[in-house]
Write a structure and sequence with these properties.
Elements lengths: L1 E12 L2 E3 L5 E5 L4 E5 L6 H9 L6 E14 L2 E6 L11 E4 L3 H4 L6 H9 L1 H7 L1 H14 L16 H12 L6 E5 L7 H18 L2 E5 L3 H7 L2 E6 L2 E7 H6 L4 H8 L38 H5 L5 E4 L2 E3 L24
Parallel strand pairs: 4-9, 4-10, 7-8, 8-9
Antiparallel strand pairs: 1-2, 1-3, 1-5, 5-6, 10-11, 11-13, 12-13
Helix pairs in contact: 3-4, 4-5, 6-7
The chain binds adenosine-5'-triphosphate (ATP) and magnesium ion.
Adenosine-5'-triphosphate binds next to strand 1 and helix 1.
Length: about 325
């Protein structure tokens, strides 16, 4: 399990501090596909980097923490954020946004992985044995093992992404963080990758965290979702519950902007823009775009409140009575899965 405790991850810039995530708190459970959604710039990638323990200037943790629960030598241990890097790859792996451009164009696929990520495995097993295993694993995932000898530019975008997903799961990490794994790919290729992710999760019984701004992707594959808006968590719920009865007006708008089969109407986009994270407003950050907002919403920050078991919302209008009595437990986002 991963526990995110009131995390504020910021960037120090010449213009001031960009408050990319503020007081974010939820748990990520074993054996689930958790989706994180929200518009561009709402802090999804920042959150992923923080969870992965990959915090480098200008990013810094202003407050809060992350705990990774691991089992080592039969013992449960809680690993704090600054030590998570010791568990990279074996226990937690990360498929970064735009991972296609992360690959070095002049190095064959197999060498990128053997030399950078799988060094410990190379030491333990030897290079050839490991390559044989990788080839077998790719074949299991219906990928041609020859891709290992290819240079990145010899593969299509979709193929590259599938290879990256395959190799990121090769040593069966407990947690796989995937930042926009299907963005910029056409719908058919996207579907192939989503199916691959779902099958892998079923097979490995591990946890995938999928970041995407595309609600359609979340609807298809996630079990539970976290909706972010301007650096804060707006809503957490099981995916079916979220689509059936969204509570936050922002979630409603995200769902309503999805195209539907058999519907020729132009879908309403979301008017307006999120506030600057250099100087976010004091009250609810969504107030300026919200059809429910009043003067109170512009003054008071909503807390994340549990409105039904496992369903949390940060909206003064939708969860008003509890808004001022938030407890630690109401921040956890426990879906009881
Ligand atoms: N290296 C950086 N230096 C300064 N500000 C940054 C840096 N990286 C991100 N930010 C800012 O932090 C905020 C959150 O960015 P982040 O990349 O986490 O958003 P995102 O939700 O992943 O967006 P997208 O959907 O476009 O990938 C944005 O306002 C962004 O401009
Ligand atoms: Mg991003």
């Amino acid at each position: 399990m991963i526990r995110i405790k009131h995390l504020s991850a910021h960037y120090q810039t010449v213009q001031g501090t960009v408050k990319a995530t503020e007081d974010v708190a939820f748990d990520i459970f074993d054996n689930e596909i958790l989706g994180i959604a929200g518009e561009s710039g709402c802090g999804k990638t920042t959150l992923m980097k923080a969870i992965y323990g990959n915090v480098e200037p200008p990013m810094f943790i202003a407050s809060g923490s992350i705990e990774l629960e691991v089992e080592e030598l039969g013992e449960q241990k809680i690993i704090p954020n600054h030590e998570i890097h010791r568990y990279w790859w074996d226990y937690i792996s990360y498929i970064p946004q735009a991972s296609m451009s992360v690959l070095n164009p002049v190095v064959r696929i197999k060498d990128q992985f053997l030399d950078s990520y799988l060094r410990a495995e190379v030491r333990a097993l030897g290079k050839q044995a490991l390559l044989d295993r990788m080839a077998a694993y790719l074949q299991e995932l219906e990928l041609p093992p020859e891709v290992l000898n290819a240079f990145p530019h010899q593969l299509s975008g979709g193929m590259r992404q599938r290879v990256i997903v395959a190799l990121a799961t090769f040593v069966h990490p407990k947690f796989v963080l995937a930042d926009e794994p299907t963005t910029a790919l056409d719908v058919v290729v996207q579907r192939g990758i989503l199916t691959m992710l779902m099958n892998l999760q079923k097979q490995l019984h591990n946890t995938f965290v999928i970041v995407s701004h595309d609600m359609g992707v979340h609807y298809q594959i996630t079990d539970r979702m976290v909706i972010m808006y301007a650096g804060k968590v707006a809503e957490i719920a099981r995916t079916d519950v979220l689509f059936e009865r969204p509570q936050h007006p922002y979630t409603e708008m995200l769902i309503n902007s999805l195209p539907r089969v058999g519907d020729d109407q132009q879908r309403a986009g979301i008017g307006g823009r999120p506030p600057s994270l250099l100087n976010p407003p004091g009250g609810c950050r969504f107030a300026d775009r919200c059809y429910l907002a009043d003067a109170y919403c512009r003054q008071v920050q909503p807390d994340l409140v549990e409105v039904e078991p496992g369903h949390f919302v940060a909206c003064l209008k939708r969860a008003p009575s509890l808004a001022l009595t938030t407890t630690e437990s109401s921040h956890r986002g426990d879906a009881g899965k």
